[in-house]
Amino acid sequence: MILKDEKESGGRRASKSNASESSAWSLALRWLGHRDRSAAETKEYLCRHGYAAGVVCRVVDRLRLQGFVDDRRLASQRAEHWLRRGFGQLRARAELEARGVAEEYIAAALAAVFEGEKEVARELIGRRFPRAHLDEKVRARASRFLLARGFPQEVVVVLLGEPC
Q1: Cys-Cys crosslink for 68: which of 20, 63, 87, 158, Cβ 3.0 to 4.6 Å?
Q2: Shortest CA distance to 161 belongs to which of 141, 137, 143?
Q3: Rounded CA gap, 120 and 87, in Å?
Q4: Predicted pLDDT at 58
Q5: Residue 95: which region, alpha, beta or left (left: phi > 0; alpha: psi -120 to 50)?
Q6: C-alpha distances in angstroms, 112 versus 8, 83, 95, 116, 121?
Q7: pTM for the complete prediction?
Q8: CB-based burial of residue 162 (10 Å sphere; 0-12 exposed, 13-18 middle, 19+ buried)?
Q9: What stretches in the chain show pLDDT beneath 50?
Q10: How many Å separate Cα 105 from the centre of its chain?
């Protein structure tokens, strides 16, 4: 069966950007239905699926306008997630940078969420190293533990009393 567009184009199928944009929109919505993604991740995903850069930009802009993609919201949610799990702001920053979130959104989210970071680190040390007084060897282990979890060195120094 030959479509009307195929007859007019000499048997070749005319590429319609609207159809491509519509399919990119549907694909993006299905993908975003699983969890929040950044605009950069969404662009990369659509490009991997073969959509043209112009189509990808239009779809991502439309997703932003309708609130399906919101890097500011994503940064805040992910920062809260890592703090709840007992990780520091450096861990949250690394994830957000890897996801392509803009620095301004990362900085705002980390400033808002990690105000009580020192208390979280203190609680972690109390649970992980329950001794009332930490000797030098245990302090070194606690220091490595907190640094590995993404707490800034300044927080570790304040809590443990000496540089790492």
Answers
A1: 63
A2: 143
A3: 8
A4: 95
A5: alpha
A6: 59, 11, 17, 9, 17
A7: 0.77
A8: exposed
A9: 1-16, 164
A10: 11
